[in-house]
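Q: Fold this one first, please.
A: Sequence and structure below.
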Amino acid sequence: MIHYHGTPITPRERLQQMRGRHFCVSHESPRDLETALAIGASVMGDNGAFVRWTRNKPTDWPAYYHWCREWLQHPHWCVVPDVIEGSEEENDALLGECPLPRELTAPVWHLNESLDRLRRLADNYPRICFGSCAEYDDPRSSAWVDRITTAWEVLSRGRTLPWVHMLRAMQQAAEGPWPFASADSTNVARNAVRLKPRHGVMCGEVMADRLDGVNPRKGRVDAR
């Protein structure tokens, strides 16, 4: 599983020492983008919808599209705009409005949305994201685990199995029995700055090594 480490990561020295890893850069806080593109194995562009929703700020999707066009190419990709706690119709409308290449984008299936929408996204996009929300907001809950398991069962019965990315639940995606292709987390960005180096090694590196070293177990889901 590819582990995308959320930015911004401070101080800049800490970010530079994570050279060669994969990074998630949000449109809401994009100042590490140039460095992440220069030193990272790949960059995932996040649309910032969740952060803006938590701060009660409006979205600006034309600005997001313009930002993505400046750097979006393989092996990098970005998340299609979505409406947090919005209806399926609202989120489908954003899919139709997105001008970015489909092969470089990933729509979000929110866990409280229908399984029919999940199947439809999987049939039409090479990569999709799972997003926790509503009654499935807590990755530690049995409801979240059951919903993720059901979603993977639906995907395994389809004619195509897309690349599936778990938004903001890296630990659960990596430790669970589901074959996630990637996940993101701001664990290093939020916590490493408070820790002191150990034996000359920055704690951001230590944390990233630990996170990157945990991957989903194989053979637990019949993914055809």
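Q: Good. Now the second chain.
A: Here it is, same layout.
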Amino acid sequence: MAGSYTKGDLEPAVKNVLITGGAGFIGSHLAADLIARGYRVTLLDNLSAQIHGENAPPPQLAGTSTFIRGDVRSREDWLRALRDQDVVVHLAAETGTGQSMYAVERYMDVNVRGTALLLDLLANQSHRVGRIVIASSRAVYGEGKYRCPQHGVVYPESRKAADMQRGDFSIKCPQCALELALVPTDEDSRLHPESIYGISKHAQEQMVLVTGRALGIPVVALRYQNVYGPGQSLRNPYTGILSIFSTRIRHGAPISIFEDGTESRDFVYIDDVVNATRLAIESDAAAHGVFNVGSGVATSVLAVAHGLREGLGGDSTVEVDGRFRLGDIRHNLADITRIRHALGFEPRTGFAQGLDRFIAWVRTQELPVDQFARSIEELERRGLYK
């Protein structure tokens, strides 16, 4: 019956898993892991040219898997993909903070309307889906959590363009204007996304959580931090600074650093993300939960640039130009206490080790066209790059 789910359906016979965006970075790694563990996996992906290149071939996976070339905005594609599925891992999305600020309709159409179609079908069609795992994002937090020496915990609003144009990129207390100290952002922190992408991920997560409870389907929302590692798209100039920087280095082009370079991100290695996602599929304790998936360590953008340049060699310079993108946050650091305690998750790959693995993989790849300058021109033309 539509929306039906009986507790216990997942134990121990979960075998059929649908991964939307399954040909992408996270999806392909997750699929390989699940197939190796005996799951039957279906991949739904539109093979976006921005990510996969023009005329990309379907993914080749050993084991029991099915690939459907389709779009999450198509009811017919959803109906075909959902047939006989026990679990849906919904990864398909438009990603990229900067691009989202002008491709507003596309981001909301794919991320929000595409998810609405899934939920509408689960509410109104017969199915056997017993769990949904939704890929949320660190972007739902906006600037995240800070501490003021006078006022305690603060969730600051976005920085003012006028301050940043003067070279002041710091986060200040809205009450006393003192500079704030970064603290790890936990899942109970205020949600106030600062980009269209972040708004779309917030909407996705809330839609799935609310509908899952109403239909009696356990749902898990995973707020991924900055995922990196072998296999990420080297073609997409709008997201993934490791990919963008490594392509610039291989072309001998300068690495342009936004702001002052001390802005930081929580980089989490792909194998750790796959492990966390599998725990979300399998663990009873995950049901109806929201979890950060990160390393719990903040790494500066300058450290990333210098690490890549040292590892890849070449003549690229690192240029800190003081310019900035509207919609970017200053820092990102996840509190991963909840996922540790509830699911037993522990990140196993530190950034230095993960960076070495990424560099080794990059050396084996064809040199992609460097589209960074074009992406910046696009942002600048729209007044989003200052």
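Q: Anything worth noting on the second one?
A: The longest helix spans residues 104-124.
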